[in-house]
Design a protein that fits this description.
elongated, 11 helices, two-stranded antiparallel sheet, 246 residues, mainly alpha, 71% helix
Length: 246
């Protein structure tokens, strides 16, 4: 008799345990579990990263957004300030900037999977530190985890744009090298040293790649802040529970 009832009792006990778990999870007032916190933060990171990358990867995602548009370094101010004095100079300068920003938009298409891969390695400790951190804590976590890989993703695309011939078989890189070489000769001269002129050592592709990534993480931080502070941005029940109780 006992042997006959044993399978039934096991099934009943298992069913009751599962039912109890479901009931507990339906209770909105129950304390957050460690598992929920980590799952919620991973979900927030994936959603935020995908949204940030999507916004930047569309046409003009970088180029038409004044917050993230990539421009030449400050050392190139002499070019931007005097472009209008050269026939077609302003259009030439804008063509250069357009190509650079298009390259960044192209690279942004591949950023979301890099973020998603990094999210999978988040520990419980990471999760609670992020939850209790500033409004950009998750962004800073992803930046630390993905920056080098994203740099390797963006840099070749930026470099390719810089190497394209713009006019007269001259590329942006060649124009930059010519400009800085001429400036550095002046800065290194006796007159330049007396005037305390500084040489230009900026690596153009490095500078522009870093600016492109600055824009990506700025957008990610904006998405994170929305999820933390705006109820309507919490598009899943798990996000609502984790961030409303934190």
């Amino acid at each position: 008799m006992i042997r006959t009832l044993l399978p039934f009792l096991i099934i009943l006990a298992t069913g009751c345990a599962e039912l109890s778990r479901v009931v507990r999870e339906m209770d909105p007032n129950r304390p957050l579990t460690k598992s929920e916190v980590v799952r919620g933060l991973k979900q927030a990171l994936v959603i935020g990263a995908d949204s940030a990358a999507s916004r930047l990867s569309v046409k003009d995602g970088y180029y038409r957004d004044h917050l993230v548009k990539i421009t030449l370094p400050p050392e190139a101010e002499i070019i931007t300030r005097n472009a209008g004095r050269i026939p077609g100079g302003e259009k030439l300068l804008e063509d250069i900037l357009l190509r650079i920003n298009r390259s960044a938009e192209d690279a942004a298409e591949e950023a979301a999977p890099v973020f998603a891969k990094a999210v999978t390695s988040m520990s419980i400790r990471d999760g609670f530190e992020i939850l209790r951190g500033e409004n950009n804590a998750a962004t800073e976590y992803l930046k630390a985890e993905t920056y080098n890989e994203l740099y390797q993703l963006y840099q070749p695309k930026i470099q390719a744009s810089l190497d394209k011939e713009i006019v007269g078989s001259i590329s942006t890189n060649e124009s930059w090298d010519t400009l800085t070489a001429k400036w550095n000769r002046i800065a290194d001269s006796i007159v330049g040293r007396v005037a305390d002129l500084e040489t230009i050592e900026t690596e153009l592709d490095k500078y522009l790649t870093e600016k492109a990534l600055d824009g990506l993480f700025l957008k990610l931080a904006n998405e994170e802040e929305k999820i933390r502070t705006t109820s309507s941005a919490r598009v899943t029940d798990l996000l609502k529970r984790v961030f409303e109780k934190s």
